Amino acid sequence: MYQVLYRKYRPKVFSDVVGQEHITSTLSKEIETGKISHAYLFTGSRGTGKTTCAKILSKAVNCLHPVDGNPCNECEICKGLDSGAILDVVEIDAASNNGVDSIRDIRDEINFTPASCKYRVYIIDEVHMLSIGAFNALLKTLEEPPAHVKFILATTEVHKLPVTIVSRCQRFDFKRVSPEAMKGRMEYIAASEGFTADEEALSLIARIADGGMRDALSLLDQCTGHGKHITAETVCQVAGMTGKDHLFSLAGAACEKNSGKALELINELHGNSCDMERLCSDLINHFRNLMIVKTVRSSCDILVCTADEAKQYKEQSAKFTLENILYCISLLQESMANIKKGVNRRIEMEMAMIKICSPALSSDNEALLRRISDLEHKIKTGAISVGTPAEAVREDKKETPDIKTAPAVKEESAASSQSEAVPPPDDENLEGSIDWAEVLSELTKTNMPLWGVLTGSGAFIRGDHVIIVSDNPTLSAFIRTGTNARDVKEAVYRVTGRKYRLGLQGSNAPSEASEAPQAKKDPLADLIGRAKDMGINIDVNN
Question: Where are the domains of the chain?
Fold first, then answer.
């Protein structure tokens, strides 16, 4: 009968255990010197050798002729334990025997001496699954068991164990097996089984296994079904790593800020029965890989991908800033939590991609930092449109004086002094209203920072002026910067079909007794304004 590789090549002595030398050396020394504890606790992630070491330890303490702390595997005790003929070593799965009655049975059995061995050994696997009552029943027995009884507890989630249990055991923490140690073990097994494997294939298997030797051997076993020679392509096919093009496409749409393309991709994936929760998880991992490439010099040792995919990650990461990548990961993680409790997973995923593609929709600090980072990246790389500086500055200077804070009934020169604040409109001087919401909607197409500053404002028409009413202290200084005044007037013209001049009312209107207030500017607005003063036209929508 065929036996899978991880069972066939399970270590039988401590020296064969891969990657846990700090534990196996200690255990073998304890057995060699006779200083054996009454209870052991083995913790660590899956497939790192906890149960294997427990079985070796149970044989070693009972072996008739131990060799350097290892079982000889030749005496009748070792052979009887391997074959299951000797029942003095008991393995219990706490996941299915987690009740208090199971522990009471153990407590009754330990009063009897072992039939063949020196010690009766109880191996309790996944011990964290025991109930509270079972733990309480185990406490006294675990602390002071009979001299002929040994306990070995194994768990992947030691934090779930009561402190009273942990304190009664000698604890050993199993590390994840390194990729180099895995490769060496797999090369030995391949030579023993008569098949070959490329070094790249073995490295990929080791990275996929994520520190679990059992997972690595299970995947290697699957690959042998495709032939006597294992390549990286075989590993990708068996592990289901193919088909990452949609992730690169979604990340590309995010980089281009093309929400339409992103929604089309999601619609196509949804039509192909793609689970939105799995898609969100895969996309988080994709941006995590971009983050690794962006920050780690030898990223190929960390990424779980082929050489071609590593090249794609490197090319795509160059198009993102690190702040942008972190923002995408943070937003996707929030969406992941909403997907798990939301009614419509597809809508949550679509909302996430729209927010990633349109950072102006979010007003938190992370979104602002991302927008600033994008602008700095564009300036460094030259990916901005530059006009004629002299003409731009002259044009701005001509248009800026049009902004007034007085009743704005007659024109004033550029050298005029501070004006009076605009009085509240009443029935006598209010000449008309304006669809200000439509004006703000037009501004989103041409000047997003200005739209953000004007959010929450209102306006009315008085004579040939549009009077803006706002409590935003940054508006007065911001609207005098660059081409912002012209952009507002053009938006008004597109809505009303008529050209108006501008006026300000509210906290933005300066008083007669003081100079113009030095309002604290928005960081992003200040950056864009300084760039425009230098004659550099930055389109934040791209």
Answer: 5-173, 179-239, 245-381, 388-537
